[in-house]
Design a protein that fits this description.
Length: about 400
């Protein structure tokens, strides 16, 4: 970062003559300094990361699984089939919480449970909202451990065992383990192809980074393991659009730790229409703001989690600068105006490719351990490297604005 500042002095001076020196410093800080620092920090951290070995390979403690769903008649059977294929030796208690469905979700779940010989109990929650559905199910959980699973998420046959192995091998202050979610429908269209690399490289790497510093910031509700008593201790899932983010930060605030297990894999369908993608990612952005408002980074008891949650304070700034400065600068560069983006910007590409190659090598090893193969998706990869941030930043900005204007929150 220091080197970047030194070589950018001429750039600052030239841009300062156009927008004033303070504005130039703010712009270049958002475009180059902070993103460069964060990327370097992530790469170095991942290079030194060594996932601890499992102390217990085949735990047998009983586990409850909560599946909150609304109008999932078409997908719930496949989800239950994958649960039936688990190699976990302990008992599984499945609670399907029907959140005011207007289709036959509950009937299909009940029938599938019988056919698969699973211990399935269907519950009903009329109040709309995923948090209400999960809290309804939590009332029935009697086991020490509970897993939350989305109704459109399919578990790898070793998924439950690996989540429980990580929890059984972890220190007593670990109260949750986030699983790794990957994309199932990546062949659908260009948007799904891009998201495959985001889940495979981007999201998984960020969670590994956070897990290294014992502060995974999101034990995602789509697929994570929790200690039941700790979830109850913090009051269950909160009434928030990012209920899993706010819940996780509540754990961290009480000095608990959250881990990530990259080999505990599940597959989900991602949005294939841009409007649905934008709604999903804007919800994620809103969820981060909700968490920041409820639990301030400086209130976190552990130094690592103060740092990791504090990083989120600058994310809105980075997204705003990227959206309203970098992207217009890219357009200007097409007409020979190199105030923001110019030929030198191309030097970032080798660093970006090197970074993603490092992440790819690790993930490839995870896949080999699980008997999985990486799909050939070169078009999606190059779109992910070159274009993804140009899609994500404006969508995130829209999410921040939604939260600022307190617009109506929608689960789906």
């Amino acid at each position: 970062m220091f080197f970047s500042i030194i070589i950018s002095i001429p750039w600052i001076k030239e841009l300062g003559e156009i927008v004033t020196l303070p504005a130039a410093i703010v712009i270049i800080t958002g475009i180059a300094y902070i993103p460069g620092y964060l990327n370097a920090f992530m790469v170095v951290s991942l290079l030194i990361d060594r996932q601890p070995v499992f102390k217990t390979l085949s735990p047998e403690d009983p586990v409850s699984i909560l599946i909150a769903c609304r109008n999932e008649e078409k997908g719930i059977e496949a989800t239950l089939k994958q649960i039936a294929k688990q190699d976990y030796q302990g008992k599984l208690y499945i609670y399907v919480i029907d959140n005011n469905s207007t289709d036959a979700t509950s009937k299909v779940a009940q029938q599938s449970g019988k056919e698969l010989r699973l211990n399935v109990q269907v519950l009903f929650e009329k109040r709309p909202g995923k948090n209400h559905a999960l809290n309804k199910g939590l009332q029935f959980v009697k086991t020490k451990h509970v897993i939350t699973l989305d109704a459109d998420t399919l578990l790898h046959p070793q998924a439950v065992r690996r989540l429980m192995s990580r929890m059984s091998s972890a220190p007593k202050e670990v109260c949750a383990v986030a699983g790794a979610i990957l994309v199932r429908n990546s062949r659908k269209n260009w948007l799904a192809k891009i998201q495959e690399w985001d889940y495979f490289l981007g999201i998984a790497s960020i969670k590994r980074l956070q897990g290294l510093y014992q502060g995974t910031l999101v034990a995602q509700g789509a697929y994570s393991l929790y200690l039941t008593n700790v979830v109850k201790e913090v009051g269950g899932w909160p009434d928030a659009i990012g209920e899993d983010i706010v819940l996780t930060w509540a754990f961290l605030e009480k000095n608990y730790k959250v881990y990530f297990e990259p080999t505990a894999v599940a597959f989900t369908d991602v949005p294939t229409e841009f409007i649905h993608f934008a709604r999903q990612r804007s919800r994620w952005a809103r969820g981060m703001i909700e968490a920041l408002k409820r639990t301030k980074p400086w209130q976190q008891p552990m130094v690592f989690t103060r740092y990791l949650t504090g990083v989120n304070l600058v994310m809105p700034f980075l997204d705003f600068v990227y959206t309203f400065v970098w992207m217009p600068g890219l357009i200007l560069s097409l007409f020979g105006v190199f105030w923001i983006v110019g030929p030198h910007t191309l030097f970032v590409l080798p660093l970006t490719l090197l970074t993603n190659y490092i992440l790819y090598r690790y993930q490839k090893g995870v896949f080999a351990d699980l008997g999985l193969h990486i799909r050939k998706n070169l078009i999606g990869f190059f779109l992910y490297v070159l274009c993804y941030q140009m899609i994500m930043a404006p969508v995130s900005v829209w999410g921040y604005l939604q939260e600022f204007m307190r617009l109506r929150r929608v689960w789906k």
